[in-house]
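To assess whether the prediction recovers the assembly geometry, we first specified each molecular entity separately, as shown.
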Amino acid sequence: MEPASRLDNNHKLTLKDFPYVVRWRDDRCTRCGRCTAVCPMLSIEPSVVVKRSVHSDGPIPNPKSARQTVTVIKQSTDVDRYCTGCATCSLVCPNEAIEPEFNPQHKFAFHKNRGGHPYRRGGRRNDPLVSTLDRLKFTRISMLTDPALDAGRHEFRIRTYLGRILPPEQLPIKMVNGNLRLDKKTDTFIPPVREIYPIMIGSMSIGALSPNMWEGLAMGITYLNEVEGMPVVMCSGEGGMPARLLRSRFLKYFIPQIASGYFGWDEIVRALPHMIEDPCAIEIKYGQGAKPGDGGLLMAHKVLKLISEIRGVPMGVDLPSPPTHQTKYSIEEAVAKMIQSMSMAWGFRVPVYPKISATQTSKAVLNNLVRNPFAAALSLDGEDGGTGAAYDVSMNSMGHPIASNLRECYLDLVKQGKQNEIPLIASGGVGKKGNLAANAAALFMLGASAVSIGKYIMQAAAECLGDEQNRCNVCNLGRCPRGITTQDPKLYRRLDPDKVAERVVEVFKSIDIELKKILAPMGRSTELPIGMSDGLSADDPAIAERLKINYAC
Amino acid sequence: MCRLAALTSAKYFSPIENVIALETMKEGHDGSGMGLILKDLGGDFKDLKNYPILSGICSKNGLSALDSYMDKLGFRLKHEWSPKIKPVKGIERRDYYFSRAYDYPDEYKGRSLSEREGLLLNTRVALRKMGGADESIIVFAFYPDIIALKEVGDPMQLGEFFGLDNSSLKAKIIFAQGRQNTNYAIDLYACHPFFIQGYGTMTNGENTAFIPIKEFLQGRGMPGYIGYNSDSEVFAHILHYSCRHLGYPLTYYKDIITPLKAEEIATRKDSEVARLLKMSLRPLCIDGPNCVIGFTPDGTTFMVQDAKKLRPGIVGGIKGKFGLMSEECGLDSAISKRDRSLDVFPMKYDMVIIEPDAKGVKVWNQLQGWTTIIS
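The predicted structure of the complete assembly is given in tokenized form:
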């Protein structure tokens, strides 16, 4: 009889319990070893098994069995080395001998929580459903009174404003000889405003992103600004920016972010006297849509030399950013004081705005900002937003979709007649299904002055392997197989920053054409259709009613 | 597309001239309405310049409600004009069309013009609300020296219906629009021209920015910014908002509804202001192919259009009488003896302005400034 110790495998999982099962074909495999070398999770490994084979030689059947030692590719059943389905193994296999297959019956969620640590993962929700933004269509087409515009030939100005805009009643203007002139004798504060491209690259820090990825994005937006004439801007995310960039003329294309960890801010403040350009704006992070009410964490294994230098912290330590700005007494105080002090630091020449996670309380924050003359905008981050690391439960169950949150905030401003004064920036799942231009245009029509994208640009510019069914999603472990969200040189060397930059430019130029293809038939070419809600319809009556737009079926 | 016929003259003339011009421009229109606004009135109203005139349509019940409301406020009827209606097939006659001059309530006699204007506007809004649900009271204007007449139907037939060819109705500035309804339900209130406190406009084209403009104007807290049965009604309100409420010169109306690019603004002498106006009034950018013809309280008339307008309007005439029309043939009909070489087809950056009493024509170019065409 077998001893109990050999029968008792209760502490182990079978492959059927895992989200991906690696299909390896013995007959095609040449044992080159590339797949095992490249696997970021170390889920597969070369192994040796003893095989018994039966064969018969000669004209009369005479079976003989033989034992043979062969090398195989074996998938680990260790929970910490689970296959994420990234399929890097398939990418490198010369003979199509290996691929991970999704296992819809997996029980991973029941087993992943080990050592008292709930499952935490990178930037995508487990939500393959169609988002509200993808259920909106543009149904007001100019056709009768005047023909629609020609997207290819007409002159377009797809621009928006970032910064607080004074209402006309408050402009310091006087009449001189029948003309209007600026009245410089009044003490009216005219807030700084930037004219930017309405799709911004949202906050992704150096640290969360690999140096190559961040550099690629930065080069891409610089090219867009300086060569293509498209004023696309990019937020740094928390953790500061390279010192050389802070002192360069390129700073005007960047929005440094200050978050509750305050990482990198010493360096930014120290660079202030040496700045030859003002940054585009300053973003103060209070929340992120993918994990509202939760702080950030850059894990120790990502804090390598470069990161420690930029952030001004020791190497190899966890860098938690708490969910609140703990140096402040209350959220109102935090918002007011930080906006004011950041504005003051740049001589009130730079727009300063907060980013919050979209929640039921967004309107309350907005109403505080409306009454703060220094608040430049409000960035609302919906639940579909990404993050470097979030608890599974936060990703799946916390947060507010962006569409209705933005709409409510916009209509609240409309009610007060202040819709043009505080720009709303919407983000969180914009372009989740690849329809970036359509999603962005829909958000403009619901009331956004600009949209912010993160995941989309990573997917498009660096060919991210993840999907919304929890494929890959190891952005938090520093094992990104593409080299996007890792500080491991072995991994990020896979990413060519020049190629990333090239893709960023291609993406924005294509999006620009798509936006024109949406705006032209609707008769808009000069101004962004902010709040043009009569142009939108939803295919669901409940959505239409909630967003106060048309229902079309 | 709607037909627009505006005439401004040093002498009084009959609105039938406008109606004939509209007829000349007719080309496959559905005739979903005609609107007439007469300013600087002659005829019976010549000596009643200081008394506000209430223009509208009532049912029998509506009329008695209107009378009792006006009495209650203290308005006293001074003079009344009603068209001599001639039944015309296809035009549904309503009970009572009227333009009535009232004397102000006693307590307003010594008050300032702006206080009186406030009273007139509030009264107009109140009457409109009173009779809005059952259309028993329809009010187009309540203001001194202004008459408005509107009805659903073909303009020429409506001219006959209202007996305009034999009417005593005369004015120095008359705006007429033959409406081709394309966007919204046929509604009498949607008929151009629109009027508010001395400012009037009519337009043809499609205003795609209607909702954001409407929402912006409604948020200004002004009692008169209501209605919006037409996507073009906002043009009159933007004019009122920029000239009267904000006190800007007329030329800035052009800058507000069709703002320049940032690099173009930089070339202007008032670039600092133009830049701020563009941002603050961003929702009022019309961003649609529209030709707007309007007038201001002092009798200045103008034409302006968006860069996207495929077929521009035309302004021309002789000193003492000018026409602002949507088509050249309309102008030919109204003022045939004119130097055609001086006709102006305002383009992307232009605003054609005709001085009061049709003294001269000037063009304001957003980039170049003023040019005088006829003076």
